[in-house]
Amino acid sequence: MKKLLALAVILTLVVALVPATTQAQDKVTLTIESWRNDDIAFWNDVLIPAFNAHYPDIEVIFAPAAPTEYNAALNAKLEGGTAGDLITCRPFDLSLEHFNNGYLVSLNDLPGMEHFGPVARSAWITDDGSDVFCVPMASVIHGFIYNQSIFEELGLEEPATEPEFLELLDAIKADGTYAPLSMGTVDLWEAATMGYQNIGPNYWKGEEGRLGLIDGTIGYDENGFVEAFEALARWTPYLPDGYQAISYPDSQNLFTLGMAAIFPAGSWEIGVFRGQDPDFEMGAFKPPVPEGADTCYISDHVDIAMGVNAASQHQEEAMLFMEWMTTQEFAELYSNALPGFFTLSDHAITLEDPLAQEFLSWRDECESTIRSSYQILSRGEPNNETQLWEVSAQVLNGELTPQEAADIVQSGLEAWYEPQQQ
User: Fold this and answer.
1) Domains (ranges, CATH) in the chain?
2) With contact defined as beta carbons under 8 Å apart, do 129 and 96 qualify?
3) How crowded is the C-beta side of 200, counted as CA atoms within 13 Å?
4) Which of 34, 59, 127, 178 has CB 3.0 to 4.6 Å from 88, enough for a Cys bridge?
5) Among residues 291, 39, 292, 251, which one has the least CA distance to residue 145?
């Protein structure tokens, strides 16, 4: 009897220990490295719980760094073997360097990658196109945001073509109450990013022109690239008084305070403007096309992605998370949480913010491209992106003609980029 009692006690202890041991072995923790420390609550309250509904035994910890410290901190962690399992990827060369150094794994065979086209993959793919190494998460789209109250007051309509756009600006200027366009040139980048790169794809035909620069068959000093500088120069009479001294935050304030009618924008402004004044009524129109054009193009610029740390001890679980990131569920959750940051997948989604939905709808009407200088072309000196900032501001300031600006940028590219030297 005593032997039976002892055996029963032993069996009870074994049964009690087995579930705890199994649970400890089955539970896996993944850590996400990121620079986006402004959306911690969204990851913790929405995205991670949504993933855990499918995979309850995979714990995910979102552990962002300060944006200005992320690059250096991540590099140190990768080199020291202490980085998290999932790496939020900056676009283009920094993430490419991580892949080339063996820190990120190839995702060519990841189920769900077929939902991302060439433009979506362009920031996270090797130069020869053989390996994609991050799942694209979101882009920003360029266009024009306008004050609805001013448009109603002056009886204005959204323009579709550049002649209509200039007529619209003339009407606002003739009224004299508001600055037609809210933009300054003191920060330089604004003139290129929200000016030249905003309207430019309609002139250089999106990917046709951008890829032509990369393969050397098209130059900045010809065709659509010069025409884009000419179109930008036509903005000058419609900028605010003293625009040469107006900074980017100043131009934002001019717009939200109702002193300017139209803001040449990136879609990220949606969240900014909503935050400044939730009741501010805004509309948006896509970049006007040249007269007679039969196709429109938008700058649908890649912004953020996610990769897998090659040194992760939980590759299988990390890949499950990555596969979930390719789904419609993730696309809709992410795009609604951050109005103005749009999924790069081909899933049909609906956005709750009407202004964000308007920007997103342009994908169905126009061809998408990215900014001309970001892939490959800004690796040398002079830096192509920096030169575009400088000359775009100088064109708006009347210090360079469009052709002079185009010649400067082309000469800078030819100085180091071999395909443009042929």
Assistant:
1) 27-136+303-352 (3.40.190.10), 140-300+370-420 (3.40.190.10)
2) no
3) 29
4) 34
5) 251
- At residue 283 the predicted structure's pLDDT band, cuts being 50, 70 and 90, is very high
Q: What is the largest CA-CA distance in the chain?
A: 105
DSSP 159: -
Cα gap 284→359, rounded to integer Å: 7
CA dist., res. 150 & res. 137, Å (int): 35
The Cα–Cα gap between 95 and 92 comes to: 6
Residue type, position 207, single letter: E
Q: Are 287 and 296 in contact (CB under 8 A)?
A: yes
Q: How far is it, in rounded angstroms, from Cα 141 to Cα 364?
A: 13
Rounded-to-integer distance, Cα 377 and Cα 387, Å: 11
| Nearest in space to 145 (alpha carbons), one of 353, 337, 343 | 353
Residues β-bridged to residue 307: 87
Nearest of 97, 90, 200 to residue 136 by alpha carbon: 90
204 sits in which H/E element: helix 201-204
Q: What tokens appear for 413 in the block?
A: 């590219």
Task: Give CA–CA dist 285/159, Å, rounded.
Answer: 7
3-state secondary structure of 369: strand
pTM of the model: 0.89
| CB crowding 6-34: b at 16 or more within 10 Å, else e | eeeeeeeeeeeeeeeeeeeeeebebbbbb
Helix (H) or strand (E) holding 149: helix 148-154
Contact at 8 Å (CB) between 83 and 74? yes
**CA geometry: angle at 293 spanning 289 and 299, to 5°?**
45
* Cα distance between residue 240 and residue 107, in whole Å: 48
**Bigger pLDDT: 189 or 422?**
189
Return d(Cα 112, Cα 329) in angstroms, integer. Answer: 12
Pure H helices in 206-261: 207-215, 223-233, 248-256
Judge whether 392 and 196 are in contact, CB under 8 Å.
Answer: yes
Cross-strand partners of 136: 305
Tell me the per-residue pLDDT of 369-409, one tens digit each, with 9 for 90 and over.
999 999 999 999 999 999 999 999 999 999 999 999 999 99
